[in-house]
Specification:
17% of the residues lie in helices and 32% in strands. By secondary structure, the protein is α+β, with helices and mostly antiparallel strands. A hairpin with a 5-residue loop joins strand 8 and strand 9. Keywords: Cytoplasm.
């Protein structure tokens, strides 16, 4: 009832999928907001809080859609709703490990990233989106030339796998990243201010844990972009060895789910230097322990109990394989 009375633009429009997600707009890259995302047979709608209007520039406000003229008699009150018509959609870029996806149109005001931070939610949305796009009438694209997998997605000069691209029958391009790209990172510049709580990308490998500042909205560069962004796509904020994890502290609060990772700050092991070093150079990465220092704590907030249990399970498995005993997990008040 809400969709058909206050959001849908045409009478025969059908609602196909709904999810709650954090979103970032191309014209306000530093602002992450929560939205109710509705996928219909005609468009993708992002229902936002009314208080966000002051953050957006005039060109983006042209895309705000307010239909509810009978405000006093309606049971639903839509504050602001950003509309991206499927006929304007040109490409979909999927983030690393399916943690987010970007919808891109032909102008900066038609670019928005959904930070689901959940591979299942991303997969479900993309499945429904492809089904809806299949029903759109568009001019068929030319038949592609047959290529083998490595010649199409491999780089002959570096031997690395590149992004996987799929051209949908609606001519919308879907791009999936190579999982190698997250390791092409540089350290944060010295003296950078770190706010107490802000979004991070946590990356767990077989031996290390990394916190990354990730630019979700500018990469890959849209076709209309005239210059590169000021930020790198991935910038390393901190890195620790899994074996240096001493214990995990768990809180009781239901949302957000909190975890505190307590590390022994091992002197003489500069992991930040290791991950930025040219490993093919002459200077090897030092790994000697010069003695135990003070503790380092990462306080991590995750959106759900399932996410927290998954992270703990993966960490415990890696830690036990490296240290030969069970990882201590403590409950706190």
């Amino acid at each position: 009832e809400l969709f058909h009375s206050s959001i849908a633009e045409v009478e025969n429009e059908e609602l196909r999928h709904l999810l709650w997600s954090s979103v970032v707009f191309y014209q306000t890259p530093g602002l992450e907001v929560t939205a109710c995302v509705l996928l219909s047979t005609k468009a993708v709608y992002f229902v936002l809080h009314d208080g966000l209007r002051r953050y957006f520039s005039e060109p983006l406000q042209d895309f705000w859609h307010q239909k509810n003229t009978d405000y006093n008699n309606s049971p639903f009150h839509i504050s602001q709703c950003f509309v991206l018509k499927l006929s304007d959609l040109q490409s979909v870029n999927v983030g690393l490990f399916d943690q987010h996806f970007r919808l891109t149109g032909s102008s900066p005001a038609q670019v928005v990233t959904c930070l689901t931070r959940d591979s299942y939610l991303t997969h479900c949305f993309l499945q429904h989106l492809m089904l809806v796009l299949s029903s759109l009438e568009r001019t068929p694209s030319p038949e592609p030339v047959d290529k083998d997998f490595y010649s199409e997605f491999g780089n002959k000069t570096t031997g690395k796998m590149e992004n996987y691209e799929l051209i949908h029958s609606s001519r919308v391009k879907f791009t999936y990243p190579s999982e190698e790209e997250a390791f092409l990172v540089g350290p944060l510049p010295p003296g950078r201010c770190r706010s107490p709580l802000r979004p991070k990308t946590l990356l767990l490998t077989s031996t290390e844990l990394f916190l990354l500042d990730e630019d979700y909205i500018h990469y890959p560069l849209p076709e209309f972009a005239k210059e590169p962004p000021q930020r790198d796509r991935y910038r390393l904020d901190d890195g620790r060895r899994v074996r240096d994890l001493d214990r995990i502290l768990m809180g009781y609060q239901p949302y957000p789910q909190a975890l505190t990772l307590v590390f022994d700050d091992m002197q003489g092991h500069d992991l930040m230097g290791c991950v930025t070093l040219d490993h093919f150079g002459e200077v090897p990465c030092g790994s000697a322990r010069a003695g135990q220092g003070h503790e380092i704590q990462w306080q991590v907030f995750v959106p759900s109990a399932e996410s927290r249990e998954k992270l703990i399970s993966l960490l415990a498995r890696q830690w036990e394989a490296l240290c030969g005993r069970e990882l201590p997990v403590e409950l706190t008040g």
